[in-house]
Amino acid sequence: MLITMSWRNIWRNKVRSLVVILAIAIGLIGGIFIAGLTNGIVAQQTENTINNEISEVQIHNPKFLDNMTPKFLIEDVDIKVASIKKLANVTEVCYRTKATAMASTAATGAGVTLNGIIPQNEKLVTDIHTKLVEGHYFEKESKTAQIVIGQKLAHKLKAKLGNKIVMTVQSLGGEMTYALFRVAGIYKTNNSGFDELNVFVRSSNLNPTLGMEANQTNEIAIRTTNLDAAFAVVDNLKPEFPELSVQSWREIKPSLILMMTMMDQFSYWLLIIILFALIFGIINTMLMVIMERKRELGMLMAVGMNKKRVFRMILIETTLLSLTGGLVGLIISYVMVSILGNTGINFASWAEGMEAMGYSAFVYPVISNEFYVVVTILVILTAVIASIWPTRKALKLNPADAIRE
Questions:
Q1: Which residues contact 115 (CB under 8 A, 6 or more apart)?
Q2: Nearest of 35, 10, 3, 25 to residue 331 by alpha carbon
Q3: Are 34 and 201 in contact (CB under 8 A)?
Q4: pLDDT at position 304, please?
Q5: What pLDDT sits at residue 334?
Q6: Residue 196: CB partners within 8 Å, gap ≥ 6?
Q7: Mapping DSSP to helix (H, G, I), strand (E, B) and coil, where does residue 112 land?
Q8: Interatomic CA distance for residues 257 and 183, integer angstroms
């Protein structure tokens, strides 16, 4: 009975109730949309970093991580890779030769990271081969050793397809050696910093230059079924390879976890601030309701309605008013995020700045179901808090005085 009475009381002044409902709905739509946008940016950055750069798990010689010197090797790599592939949750494995080098063209030079790869294996682990804007990914043979470079580096070196690039690199013995490569492909990811630094060559061309044998490498990259499965794989590999450093994506790129945590907290705090601001609007509305219904409330208390029932009635009114606005906001937000999550939002005008920080200019908003549940709880909590002052005002009414007014 109280719920029915409270619902009818809300609509006694339709304009005032609709204003509050719209204010709550618009506040939630704005907060949820911004939360979805920030979550989408972080989710895409994480996905791009895993797919293009680091994979879920990496294995190195511990000393290699200090200064990336090629002489700190992983031995018997074929045996280790075969063992890793047998583990549960492991989908693909590849290995790379890595070295810092100076890339020089007729125009200029730049410091780069040389990645010596086996192309057919690398394709299973990273998506660089899908990011080509020019040329090919080692599909064609050439008398000169081939190299695939980032578009940002190509602009910096003024290098085009077919141009030659000389790499100056330190061999395992410490001597400076030189290798000539011809540009076979140019790629572009959403991280211009990665594009400017990383170049890819066949390990069969790079290893002899460094003085490495075929069964030696510097890095093993492992893909797993999902991000969480990476931790179980790491736990299994550490006892198997105690002499090596086995790291999950969380240890390789701790900035990803930092960004996820920050964006989660930002989303919740943004909604809390919005709902806190809306509390004052709800309080103001309910105080006006109490003032307008003084005589009515006085009569109800005079005929026997106790203070507990008055308290429950006003609390239910405030909660129903807030939940109606919250429900409208949640439904519109869910539809909007679902549509934009499929179509995406193109921030083309800010593409250069976003890609310089490793973010994609095309964002797909995403919101978890858990977030919607938390928002619903926050809306109910807001209603309860907003009802306290108006309820106290009503409970202080003297029935005789209220009826006379």
A1: 96, 97, 98, 198, 199, 200, 201
A2: 25
A3: no
A4: 64
A5: 92
A6: 110, 150, 152, 153, 156
A7: strand
A8: 36
Alpha carbons 210 and 148: distance in angstroms, whole number: 19
Q: What is the pTM of this model?
A: 0.78
Give the per-residue pLDDT at 298. 65
Q: Quick check: 33 and 333 in contact, CB under 8 A?
A: yes
Of 90, 82, 126, 81, nearest in space to 230 by CA: 90
Asked if residue 130 has pLDDT above 60, the reply is yes
- Tell me 217's DSSP state: B
CA dist 129 → 54, 94, 353 (Å): 15, 15, 24
Going by the DSSP 8-state scheme, the letter that residue 77 receives in this structure is H
- Pairing state between β 90-104 and 245-248: unpaired
Q: What is the DSSP string of 343-384?
A: H-EE-GGGHHHHHHTT--SEE-----HHHHHHHHHHHHHHHH
Which residues fall within 8 angstroms of residue 272, CB to CB, at 6 or more apart? 378
What is the percent of the chain with per-residue pLDDT over 70, rounded to a whole number?
A: 89
Q: Which residues contact 91 (CB under 8 A, 6 or more apart)?
A: 223, 224, 225
Compute the Cα dihedral for 91, 97, 99, 103 and give only its sign. Answer: negative
In a 3-state reduction of DSSP, which class is residue 138?
coil
Q: What is the pLDDT of residues 315-341, one digit of tens each?
A: 888 888 888 888 999 999 999 998 988
Place of tokens 């079924």: 225
Q: Please name the amino acid found at residue 126.
A: T
- Tell me, what's the pLDDT at 231? 93
Give the containing element (helix H, strand E) for 231.
helix 229-240
pLDDT value at residue 244: 92
pLDDT at 400: 56
Tokens 């294995």, located at residue: 59
